[in-house]
Amino acid sequence: MPLSIRPLTLSLLVALSLGTLSACDQERVAKLEEGVATESDVRQQFGEPKRIIERADGSKVLEYPRQPEGVTNYVIEIGPDGKMSSLRQLLHPANFAKVQPGMTDQDVRQLLGQPAKTHRFDLKPDETIWDWRFQDGQQRKVFSVTFGKDNTVIATGTQDDPRELDTGR
Question: Given 3.30.450.20, 3.30.1450.10, 3.90.79.10, 2.60.120.970, which CATH number is that of 93-164?
Fold first, then answer.
């Protein structure tokens, strides 16, 4: 295969696999009904959660991030009765709008789930940036949150996903 075709072929394969992942998630979500599905049903559809938060009342929060390659983060709540009480996809503009200066990194993590990437820049060693990839209509984008040295939000921003831009190869 000529070298000039490889990046295009790889991009197409990645796009197809991400579309399949998204379709699989939609099928999984459709099989779970709030108030009916049990924790076992959720795990059967989604597998083992990345993180489990157990609450004092006996309820649980199960986190299913699809980052860094996917564009969703799911949070599924299981009530004290063992039944699913909610299933939410966290990465959407209405949720991003809730991120405000002064929020802690833990507040943001709870609101948006696991980021796709965290990074720092040498010229700004007191700042940390967290990125989440998400789908905005037909376009993939990245929502970024910048935290200061006290681990609170100082800025947010949205940009096109750089992986989707033509690199000229």
Answer: 3.30.1450.10
Q: Dihedral sign for Cα 45, 90, 69, 30, please.
A: positive
Single-letter residue type at 143: F
Q: pLDDT by residue (tens digit) across 68-114?
A: 989 999 999 999 999 999 999 999 999 999 999 999 999 999 999 99
* Residue 89: partners with Cβ closer than 8 Å, 6 or more residues away: 72, 73, 74
d(CA 24, CA 8): 24
In this predicted structure, the answer to whether residue 136 has a pLDDT above a threshold of 70 is yes
CATH number of the structural domain 6-89: 3.30.1450.10
Pair 161, 140: CB distance under 8 Å = yes
Q: Are 10 and 68 in contact (CB under 8 A)?
A: no
Q: Cis omega before residue 68 (within 30°)?
A: yes
Which pLDDT value is given to residue 3? 45
